[in-house]
């Protein structure tokens, strides 16, 4: 790791670099600005133009601003120690870096006038939060070097000046200079070349929709990747990039992948990022990441992950994010849960409707198990707000279950119609926006359901249900009572299996979305004496039976 020290030298900040490299000139007090009064331009970054040298880690990080107000300085987030050679509408500009922001100043512009800024940055080989955030090189399973540059939610400042708010959608152009042997991938429409690879996203001409920085600000490279067209369906050319030892594509069924693309585009509309969708295997921390048109998958798939077919599940999950997360993004960091819930749930629906028997059941079993250990609500309301790295693992299981429980209450068509409505237009959406879309699709007030299961502070309690039966002849009356220390009543429709010695029946005990009572009951027919009952044999609700020992899940959440 480089260590930096700054000294003030008569108008120039010099940053000394302990590795012995040339000192970087990071700022100058007045040079380039037309007067000494800093008047901030307020506005959003609408476009990024990022020229990166893979070998040196140096980038010329450019961006365009939509200036809502005029001024002569613009501040952008930056989690790097300094910038060099800043320009403001093509002219040399001053730049100062402090408090995780770069302030760049030039000649005064009027509101609505064009503003293009560039700054030189050098990205250290360093990762953050024990994740792949930052710039890293790792050995792949065939002995090649996988190089990854990515920011995640709130992290694009590790790569250059940017607006890290996840709600912002922008266009991008990447130009990567690299060794001729490198195979470089970047989000959007890809133009490979020997020693130079470019990508364009959201710039018109078939380059697709806009995207947030958390997924679009990323590059990946591996000299051992082999490009292999896999299948074409629903206007999408699926292409795999794997190293020779990679087995992801070989374990996937092209007809099933094609069927999935036909199904998901039928539900959510045409694929938003051009005509090509790339999947690349790599040694990553997560099972997958949804860079637009450029999905990175764990190189060990399908032999890692908790699903019956983890390769297909991860492929579907990241593909669903092209709409749910990329084209339509999250309104805030705390709204992260809806994009994972939606990617998980829609993958489950396809498993249930068009994949081999048992696949969807394994997904439910996994979600319901890890949900018992969740330490945060799907949409945390804690004060102060938890950091994303502290709560994101808690959303995968409960997020999928949030939808499955609603399926039991409202029916799958209403849930799918709500998701369809929620994702119709690009933009930024909150978890509460999702609630409203589901309400419009179902004609049902879902505030009590969301307030019980989705919004909340602290560790969610595991809903507890006492089950009692009484039998007269072949009629078994099943009574379920919610017994929760918080006195919350959880909207749900439960399946209780009533077992005799040789046969069984399932009672559907419906509390509704807003239970008026802690008790609900149902009657089923069983032609022999009741021996025992089983709570949720298909794992379609989060909960446990009163008096049963609290069990911890034997698996942990797998982020993807
Ligand atoms: Zn995901």
Set down the secondary structure blueprint.
Elements: E1 4-9, E2 12-17, E3 24-28, E4 43-53, E5 58-67, E6 71-77, E7 84-88, E8 91-92, E9 94-98, E10 101-109, E11 114-122, E12 126-128, E13 133-139, E14 145-150, E15 171-177, E16 184-185, E17 189-191, E18 196-201, H1 213-216, E19 218-221, E20 226-233, E21 236-242, H2 254-268, E22 276-282, E23 288-289, E24 294-298, H3 310-320, E25 328-330, H4 336-354, H5 359-371, E26 379-380, H6 388-391, H7 396-410, H8 412-422, E27 427-429, H9 431-442, H10 447-453, E28 455-456, E29 464-472, E30 475-482, E31 492-499, E32 504-512, E33 519-525, E34 532-535, E35 544-545
Parallel strand pairs: 4-15, 21-22, 22-24, 25-27, 26-28, 29-35
Antiparallel strand pairs: 1-2, 2-3, 4-5, 5-11, 6-10, 7-8, 7-11, 9-10, 12-13, 13-14, 14-19, 15-18, 16-19, 17-18, 20-21, 23-24, 29-30, 30-33, 31-32, 31-34
Helix pairs in contact: 3-4, 4-5, 4-7, 5-7, 7-8, 8-9
The structure holds zinc ion (ZN).
Zinc ion (ZN) is lined by residues 317, 321, 340, 343, 560.
């Amino acid at each position: 790791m480089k260590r930096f020290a700054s000294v003030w030298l008569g108008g120039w900040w010099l940053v000394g670099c302990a590795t012995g490299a040339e000192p970087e000139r990071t700022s100058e007090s007045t040079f380039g600005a037309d007067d000494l009064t800093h008047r901030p331009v307020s506005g959003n970054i609408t476009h990024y133009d990022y020229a990166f040298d893979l070998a040196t880690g140096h980038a010329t990080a450019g961006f365009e601003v939509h200036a809502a107000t005029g001024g002569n300085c613009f501040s952008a987030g930056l989690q790097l120690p300094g910038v060099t050679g800043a320009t403001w509408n093509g002219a040399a500009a001053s730049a100062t870096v402090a408090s995780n922001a770069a302030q760049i100043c030039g000649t005064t512009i009027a509101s609505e006038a064009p503003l293009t800024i560039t700054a030189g940055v050098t990205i250290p080989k360093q990762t953050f939060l024990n994740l792949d955030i930052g710039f890293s090189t790792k050995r792949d399973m065939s002995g090649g070097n996988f190089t990854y540059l990515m920011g995640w939610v709130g992290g694009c400042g590790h790569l250059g000046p940017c607006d890290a708010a996840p709600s912002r959608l922008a266009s991008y152009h990447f130009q990567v200079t690299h060794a001729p042997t490198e195979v470089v991938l970047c989000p959007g429409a890809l133009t490979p070349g020997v020693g130079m690879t470019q990508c364009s996203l959201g710039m018109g001409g078939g380059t697709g929709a806009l995207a947030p920085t958390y997924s679009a600000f990323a590059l990946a490279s591996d000299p051992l990747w082999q490009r292999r067209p896999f299948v074409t369906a629903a206007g999408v050319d699926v292409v795999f990039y794997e190293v020779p030892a990679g087995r992801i594509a070989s374990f996937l069924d092209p007809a099933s992948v094609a069927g999935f693309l036909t199904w998901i585009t039928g539900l959510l509309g045409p694929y938003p990022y051009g005509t090509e969708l790339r999947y690349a295997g790599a040694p990553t921390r997560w099972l997958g990441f949804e860079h637009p048109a450029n999905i990175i998958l764990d190189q060990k798939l399908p032999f890692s992950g908790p699903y019956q077919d983890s390769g297909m599940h991860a492929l579907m999950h990241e593909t669903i994010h092209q709409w749910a997360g990329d084209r339509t993004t999250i309104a805030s960091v705390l709204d992260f849960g809806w994009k994972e819930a939606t990617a998980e749930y829609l993958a489950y629906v396809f498993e249930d409707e068009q994949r081999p028997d048992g696949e969807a059941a394994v997904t439910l079993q996994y979600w319901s198990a890890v949900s018992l250990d969740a330490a945060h609500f799907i949409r945390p309301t804690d004060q102060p707000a938890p950091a994303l790295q502290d709560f994101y693992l808690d959303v995968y299981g409960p997020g999928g279950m949030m939808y499955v429980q609603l399926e039991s209450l409202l029916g799958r068509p209403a849930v799918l119609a709500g998701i369809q409505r929620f994702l119709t237009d690009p933009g930024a959406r909150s978890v509460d926006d999702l609630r409203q879309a589901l309400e419009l699709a179902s004609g049902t007030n879902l505030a009590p359901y969301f307030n019980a299961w989705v919004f909340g502070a602290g560790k969610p309690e595991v809903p507890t249900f006492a089950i009692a039966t009484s039998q007269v002849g072949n009629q078994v009356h099943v009574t379920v009572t919610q017994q929760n220390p918080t006195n919350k009543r959880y909207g749900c429709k439960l399946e209780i299996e009533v077992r005799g010695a040789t046969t069984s029946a399932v009672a559907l005990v419906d509390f509704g979305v807003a239970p008026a009572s802690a008790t609900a009951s149902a009657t089923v027919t069983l032609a022999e004496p009741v021996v025992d009952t089983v709570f949720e044999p298909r794992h379609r609700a989060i909960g446990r039976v009163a008096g049963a020992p609290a069990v911890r899940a034997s698996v942990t959440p797998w982020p993807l």
